Amino acid sequence: MDFIDNLKSKYAQQSALGQLIVVIVTFTLLSWLLQYLYQPSYYWFRLPPGLWETLLQPWSILTYAFLHSGIFHLFWNMLILFSFGQMMLNFFNSRQLITLFFAGVLSGAAFYILGESLFSTYVNSAGLVGASAGVYAVALFVCSYQPDTEVRLIFFNLKLKYIGYFLLVMTIAGIFARDNVGGNLAHLGGIALGFYAAIKMREGTDILKGLTSLGDSFMAFFKASPKKEKKGKMKTVYRNKKSATSTSKEKSTQQVKIDTILDKISASGYESLSKAEKDFLFKAGKD
User: Fold this and answer.
1) 125 and 178 in contact (C-beta within 8 Å)?
2) Cα(117)–Cα(102) distance, rounded to whole angstroms?
3) What is the three-class DSSP state of 140?
4) Which of 93, 159, 192, 228 is deepest in the core (most CB within 10 A)?
5) CA distances, 115 to each of 52, 111, 156, 219, 256 (Å)
6) Are 35 and 41 in contact (CB under 8 A)?
């Protein structure tokens, strides 16, 4: 249990970007394990080719982003997402980043389904997996929003707009070269959304605002729920009504007697009291 609690604690300490990466990696590893144990499980969560098949498993328009075809596919996607995600968080909040990522995933799914439905022979895909559409959406958003910002690439500096051009050219070339056409169509969907969102944002229009409910839903998932404190059981104490009534009457009688003695002292002095009255008054004072 301590090990699980430590993992939860470390997860809670991560930013929304870090939590997103952890979730993608975790689900990818679990999918590989499940696929090893039961091969058909792969088809439950990948985005199937064609509109009709997708309608039969609508969850796949999101779940495909949490699967990857291999270790390098996963590594490069997470590296790009981390790099550009950090840059985006310099100007925008986690909510907008998560919203943009999942909007890119949905846009990539739409481009893939449309291309597969209209040009199934050319696309010739067995299904779609990978977070690339969401990753490309984030990357192109950053490259288009801050096009002249320079970043260090090993030995030289390069403006972000040239990285954006490179990703776009490679994607289009892949489509025409029939190299992973389905995947590149999804990339194009992410690129289109990221570019459009950045251009509108520079004009002062936040197109992500209309998708805030989507972002909020996923942000809730990427937040650690606080531990509920255990509350002690409340004890209910029942009072005896008869007992309370009799006690009240006794106190009322006692108070009348005290008032009578005090009146006597006021009129004739303390020495006029009998021994019994003095004892009673002394006892009442102690109570």
Assistant:
1) no
2) 22
3) helix
4) 192
5) 14, 6, 38, 31, 98
6) yes
- What is the token pair recorded at 182? 């389905």
Q: Is 109:61 a contact under the CB 8 Å cutoff?
A: yes
Residues 194 and 138: beta-carbon distance below 8 Å = yes
Span 274-284, pLDDT tens digits: 767 766 766 66
In this structure, are strands 150-153 and 156-159 parallel, antiparallel, or unpaired? antiparallel
- Chain centre to alpha carbon of residue 202: 27
CA–CA separation, 137 and 134 (whole Å): 5
Give dist(CA 21, CA 278) in Å, integer: 85
Burial of 50 (0-12, 13-18, 19+ CB in 10 A): middle
Specify the DSSP element, H or E, that contains 51: helix 51-56
Per-residue pLDDT tens digits for 209-234: 767 666 566 656 655 454 444 444 44
Query: What's the number of CA atoms in the CB half-sphere (13 Å) around residue 203?
Result: 9
The DSSP bridge partners found for residue 269 are none
- pLDDT: is 277 or 44 the higher one? 44
DSSP 40: G
